[in-house]
Input
Amino acid sequence: MKVGTDGVLLGAWCSLKNSPKTILDVGTGTGIISLMLAQRSSAVTIDGVEMDKSAYEQTVDNFENSNWSERLYCYNASFQKFAEEINNEKVTYDLIVSNPPFNNEDYFTTNPSRNKARFTAFLTFKELIQGVSKILSKSGFFSTIITFKDESTFVSLAQQHNLYLDKICRVKGNKNSDIKRSLLTFSFIKKEINETNLIIESSRHKYTKEYIELTNSFYLKM
Output
């Protein structure tokens, strides 16, 4: 799995204002978001859950070779099964993050691992939100990144499970492009929504000041 801009954005942007002690990364892939949150926070427990065997093995290797290995752990399971078992054990997380699959076209690639990472057939928005609503602590936050076109649908589904938008950042590639992504944070508490916008590049391969400020703690060359 390649490290993508979506994962970097989510790992750098998601809220840590409740000083979470326990964090869950749903569909952890390479483990990049978990590693970023280990760097950003003092959370005692940072768990990942990844259903693809090869991605899971890569995550474990990355966790073990990081500076925060004692705080990081990954489960090889579907999120649906994981959430059910965790809920039965009455365990909750203070922060849940997910860079979920959001391609729902009626075709698949020839790469099974990439299919699992990219297509909602393996984890629908409804399944993701249902699981999160069961294992998020009452004062916790859920952060995710999705395509802008799915924003209203996702927010509506979240409200059906008593998860309300806390903050949102809409992302453009450049000032002339359409909005491509929505970074969203939810909680169980209704409040005024914090809305912002982010442009990644001022010109090709030249990052904006705002993007650099958000992400420069994680790039070797920025």
Notes: Confidence is low (pLDDT under 50) at residues 103-109, 113-121.
